[in-house]
Every structure is written in C-alpha cells, then in structure tokens.
Amino acid sequence: MTVEDQLQRDQGVQTDRWAKDSGVDTDPDWESQISALFEYSSTLSEEYDGLMKQQDQEEVTHEKHKQQLQKRKEDATRQHQGLLDKLESLRVKLQLNNSKATRKIFLSKKQEMITEKSRAEEDRNRLAKESEESDRKLKELTDQQNEEQREWKLDLEGLREYMEDARKEAQKSELLASKDEITLVEKQGEVAMSRIEAWLRDVNQYLNTLRVEFPQQFSQERVKWEKNEAAVRRSQVELQSRYQEVLQQLQQGRELETLPRINVPALPPVPMADLRFNQLMQSLVRPQFVPPPTQVSRPLPPRDTLTTTRPPITPTSPHPQYHPRYHHPHPLTTIPRLLPFSPSNLSPPPRPPVAAASAASPSAPAGKLDKVLERLGACYPQCNRAQLTALLQQVKSSRGTLAGMSMEDVIEQVGFKLQQNERSAPGPISRPTPLGPIQRPTPPPQRAAANRVDPESRYPLSCSHTVHRDCIRVWLQSSKNNSCPFCPAKPLDKQASLLQPVNVGDQSGVWGPSGARYEAPGGPSGARYEAPGGPLSGMRGINKIDCVTEQLNAKRLLKSNTAAAAGGLFVLQQRIKNIIFSLQENKQLLKEEVSGTEKEKSLQKVKV
C-alpha cells in the first residue's frame, strides 16, 4: 500500500465540513518533503545500528580492563602483606637489639615526670597558702566593714538627733520671729498713729497761734490746713486698716517679706519755727512802725514746744524704718514764708518811708546769704559757690529752717553734709543692704562619689563643686533651701530686717524694734536719734541693739548649723555607700581569685 493510497483512504473517511476540499493539497512540494523524511529515517536507523555495535565492542573492552585491574590488585595486596611481615620482623629485631637505649629513655622520662610532680606539689602548697591568706583578709575586711557600719549607724543616730533638736530650735526661732514681726508691725502702726496725732496737735496749735498773732493770714491758712488735715485723717484711717490687714495675715502664718509694703505718707511740714521767728521779729520791729498799743496779754505756749523740734514733721526728717520693706518717701515740700519782709539786723534803723522799706526788703536776704557763702567758702575752699549753696539747702531741708542757728552751727552742719556726700552720694531712701549671715568657712571642692565625674553625668551647680546627678537626687528631694550639699546654707532670717542700716538725709543708724533709732558707725559720735512716740524715745539703746544682734546671730548660726549637719549627713551617707561598694568589689575579686586558684589546683591534680 503506497502513500498515495493511504492519503486517499484518509481523505475518503474525513468527516468534517470541509471534506469536499480534502482531495486538493495547496502545498506544491509536499511529495519532496515526504521523500526527504523517509530518507532521514533510514539514515537514523543506520546510525543506530552502528552505535549499538560500538557499545558492544566497548563493553567487551571494559570487561577485559576490569579483569586486568583485579589481577593487579591481588598482586599489590600480596606485596603489601609481604612488606608488613618484613616490618614486623624488623621491629622485633630492633626491640631485641635496642633494650639498653629504651631503658635509658624510660629513665629520663621517669625523671621528668618526677620533677613535674614536685613542681605541681609546690604550686599546690603555694596556692593553698594564698587561699588561706585571702580568706583571712576577707574575714578581716568583713569584720572591719561590720565595725564601721556600727559606727556609722551610731553617727547617723547622733546626727538625726542633732537635726531633730536643730529643727525644733529652728521652729522655735521661727515662732519667735513671727511674734517679733507682729510686734514690729504693731509698733510701726503705733508710731505712725502717734506721728499723725502729734502732727494734728501741731496743726491745731499753729492755727490757734496764727488766729491770735496774724489774723490777716488766718482765713487763707485755715482753709489750706483744714484740707491737709482732712487728707491726713483719711490717710490715718487707711493706714489703720492696712496695718490691721497685715496683722491678720501675719497671724494667719504669712511671712512679712511676702506682704505688700506699707508706705507712710509724708506729712506736710507745720512752719512753727518760722511762726516763732516772725513773732520774735515782729516784737522787735513793731515799736518802730506803730506806737505802742494797749498791751494784750496772751498765754505763751509751753517751753518745750518752743525748743523741741519733731523730726517727722520737718520736710526731710527720716521716718522710723523698722523693716526695709516699709519705707517712707522723701517729702518734697517747701516752707511758705508768712511775712513779706526780713530785716537784715536786729538793731532799730532810722524810720524810712513805707515804700522804701518794702523795696529794700527783698535784697536783705540775698546780702545775708552772700555773707554766709563767703564764710563757708573761706572754711571750705575746695567747694564752689553752687556746691556750698546745695549743701546749705540740704542743711535747711534736714532741719526745716535755718532760723535760730549761729554761724558756727551752720559751718559745722555744712561740713558734716560734705563728709556724708564724700562717703556716698545723697539720694532718696532706698532698700538697705540686709545683714548677711555669719560667714562659715567654705569646704574645699570635693565630690560625693569616689568615681570620676563625666561631663554628661555631672549635675550643674552654682558653686565650684562637682556631683553626680544620681548622687544629688536624694539631697534635692530632702533639701528645699540649698542646692549644694557641701556649701553652707544661707537662710534669710526673718528678724534680720529688724536691724537694717538706713541712710536718710544726714543720719546713719539703725532703727530698733522699740521705736528708737540707735547710733551706727556712719553717724556722728554721741548723737541721739529719737523716734517720736516710741516707748524708748531719747535713750541710746546700745545694750538693746547688742542683745538683739546677738539673738539674730545665734538664730542664723543655728540655721546654718542645721543646714551644715544635713549636708554632712548626706556626704557621710554617700561615703558609706562608696565604701560598701568598694568592699563588695574587693570581695568579688577575692572570690574570683579563689575560684581561679581552685581551678589551677584541679588542673594540677589532673596533670598528676
């Protein structure tokens, strides 16, 4: 059956819908392709037959080669066995022939082992002694540590008791200080009220004298001083209420430093001295201008009112300063002149016309001022006219008037003012520098821990000491007023303000708690500064100020010792911790050394 017949049979049985086209092939060279396919198939059959023959030949060759290798293996095995037999016989011969050399080698090896054994025994004994010594040192260190801990506990108990006593003393001091503050404010209120009452009495006396002596000026001055009196009475009521508020707050536990300051208002000066001077001048000048009238008897004021000057009433007299927070402003008021004339001398001059007398009156004070300035320039040539005028004005401001002063008194007061200006420039009342605490010796810079302080682990302090952050954490939690455990505490004593230096006008001193002002190193020797209305007015108060100063110093010392004890306790605790830590490190090192010794012993035993 040919290929064409097979194709026709396949085409005849085709069942798809294109059966009518199956008899026609569109490929023109399909017959050549089929013939090439059959040729390639026959070629492959021939190659396959050749490869099968070659494989058979190679298998035969491989079998022959395998048989040859098996024979060679058997020959080599026989040769190796023969060599082993020869070697065994040679070894036996050598052992028999070299017994002396072998014995010598054995003896040398034995000697080496004996030497090694003796050296190992020596090491074992040495390590045992070192272990015993380490145990003894460890026991001594443990006993020493226990003894130090007992001593530290006793010291800690003593410090705690001391701190408790110091705390109780500090509480007592604070209670006394609060009572003193209440007493201080009460005395301030009493002094302020007494000053106002004295001023009201002076105003009443001034108006009564003015009504009798100078009725032409009484109406105008009465309106003015009635306004001033009403304003002062309002200020008095306000001051009373403010002092009551401060007292209530102090009784509630507030500190005086935290309360608002109370400024006592300046009282207008009552020109009683000018009034007396005008009365005197009028009594001397009246016989030259008018005939002697009918004498009218007038009751004179008491002698003490004519000679005693009240410092709080003058323009620049200092107000009592009991506390630096309660200061009074410097009043800037001028003294009104009541009379339109001022005679140049007390001798009765010839009777001039009324116009001439009124025209010559303004030039008379200028001529007197020139004479005073000439005398002052001769006494103090280093000052010019303007400086002397300013000093004279300061003297007048501090006293209220220059009437009744002799030339020697004026020169002395100007010299005193000049010395004060050389020491410090005059100015308004400022807050005085508080009395510092008792200076205790500052300990040298040290560290709470024995380890080195790195910059990143250092706690910043305002002093030069260096402390770890972790070491000072407990101190910062327990301490409220001091940030450094090594620096002595600097508490601000509440009663330190009771004795503060002041500098008002030409006076320098201390205001005591009883209303009296005492002399200070800057003031004139032997001078007495009185506080009107105070229970100790006019007394020097040297013993009183010493007692109060000693009391304040003792309180400051107590607080400083309390803070120093707290700092010492903290340092002692840190040192105890460091010593315990170092002992633990030494103990760990000893344990490691003992364990290493035991390991060496075990190794020596294994070697032996």
Write the layout of secondary structure elements.
Blueprint: H1 3-12, H2 30-97, H3 99-213, H4 215-251, H5 272-289, H6 303-307, H7 354-360, H8 363-379, H9 385-399, H10 407-423, H11 469-478, E1 501-504, E2 507-511, E3 517-519, H12 542-607
Antiparallel strand pairs: 1-2, 2-3
Question: Can I get a quick summary?
Answer:
With 608 residues, the chain is mainly α. The protein has 12 helices and 3 strands.
- Tally of extended strands? 3
Inertia-based shape: elongated
The helix-strand sequence is HHHHHHHHHHHEEEH
Please identify the structural class as seen in this structure: mainly alpha
User: N-to-C terminal Cα separation, in Å?
Assistant: 102 Å
Please describe what this structure looks like:
This protein has 608 residues and is mainly α. It has a domain at 34-97. Helix content is 63%, strand content 2%. Strands 1-2-3 form a three-stranded antiparallel sheet, with no helix packed on it. Helix 3 runs antiparallel to helix 4 and helix 9 (385-399) packs across helix 10.
List keywords for this structure.
elongated; single chain; three-stranded antiparallel beta sheet; 608 residues; 63% helix; 2% strand; mainly alpha; 12 helices
